[in-house]
Amino acid sequence: MNQRVTLRRLRNVTLRHLRSFVAVAETGSFTRAAESLYLTQSTLTTTVQQLEDEVGVKLFDRTTRSVTPTPAAARFREQAERLLGDFDTMLGDLQSLAESNEGHLRIAASPSVVAWLLIPSLPQFRAAYPNVTLSIRDAGSAEIERRVREGEVEFGICSQLSNFSELEYTLLLKDRYGVVCSANHPLAMLKEPLHWSDISEYQDDWVGLASDTRVGGMHRETMERFGLTSCSEEVSSSTSLFSMLSLGNRFSVVPSLTRYSHQLDSFIFRELDNPPIERELCLVTRKLRSISPSAERLLEALLETLRARDVPQGTVFV
After folding, report:
1. 3-state helix, strand, coil in the chain (%, to 5)
2. Which of 108, 114, 116, 237 has the fewest CB atoms within 10 Å of its CB?
3. Of 254, 281, 267, 242, which is closest to residue 110 (Cα–Cα)?
4. Helix H or strand E encompassing 220
5. Which of these, 63, 150, 58, lies nearest to 106 by C-alpha position?
6. CA distances from 79 to 26, 76, 199, 263 (A)
């Protein structure tokens, strides 16, 4: 018999054959082994005989009183037990992942989403799935879209900046743009409502955000729309924006949720009207790619937190 025929025959050996062999070797009895496997003795005997026929080696010496493993079976038992152990561990790990009991989850979100929504949802998620570890990245929309596209994160939550065809954008919520400034800035003292045209007198005080963020893109679109000059100062993050505004005599235009990140809630926030402009925050995933069970559970926790929280003025849950 050539090697190809031998290998084809050995493919008929299954885990059922290995479990039957190991059970008989452990108990030294076909009767007790059959009971442990919830099989009839005749079924177990047939299974072991099939294994012996497939491998071409006698595995047990049988008498009316005892069942004794042959020398070949002693070595085979060690290897079979190791193989079955690895297989059961593999299935256990897979089941744990399916139940979100363990694993590592990587996600990315805009800083305002991290501060206002993601972090408040973590206690619930961690209590239910303590063995799932997390890596959270806060970034601008361009960076988040890149990370999702390249598979660095399971999903992202940000504005739709580039509209990549390979990404899926699912709208989660909307929030209104407004002015954020210190209490003594003139824009904080104007009567309601505050209009975009009111900004023109103080445009030199406007601190802009970088163009790789949706907010920064909105700044440029709005300035062009209302005939305003470009910002004389620009930062790339909410952290830097807080530091700039702390210098005084400055303001910025941000979505309502942004004031909950990096201590911006210590400043005055006033919605802008005429016209009202909203930011849309989306769940960003890769098309035709399923997210992991752990990611699904975290999303469930996020949505439960979102539904349970008092939504700030100017914010709408879709």
Report:
1. 50, 20, 30
2. 237
3. 281
4. helix 214-226
5. 150
6. 14, 5, 77, 61
The pLDDT tens digits of the residues spanning 103-141 come to 788 999 988 899 888 998 999 888 888 888 889 998 888
Strands (E), 166-303: 167-181, 194-195, 207-209, 233-235, 251-255, 268-273, 278-286
pLDDT band at 5 (very low <50, low <70, confident <90, very high): very low
Please give the CATH architecture assigned to the domain spanning 174-278.
Answer: 3-Layer(aba) Sandwich (3.40)
Q: Percentage of residues in the chain with pLDDT exceeding 90? A: 22
Helix axes 30-37, 41-55, angle to 10 degrees: 100
How far is 222 from 4, CA to CA, in rounded Å? 73
260 vs 235, higher pLDDT: 235
Structure tokens at 119: 């972090």
Question: Identical fold at 3-98 and 104-172+287-309?
Answer: no
Tokens of 86: 């690895």
CATH fold of the domain at 104-172+287-309 = D-Maltodextrin-Binding Protein; domain 2 (3.40.190)
Residue 89's H or E segment, with its range, is: helix 71-98
Q: What is the pLDDT of residue 94?
A: 67
User: What is the separation of C-alpha 5 from the centre of its chain, rounded to a whole number of angstroms?
Assistant: 47
The CATH fold of domain 3-98: Arc Repressor Mutant, subunit A (1.10.10)
CA distance 208 to 50: 76
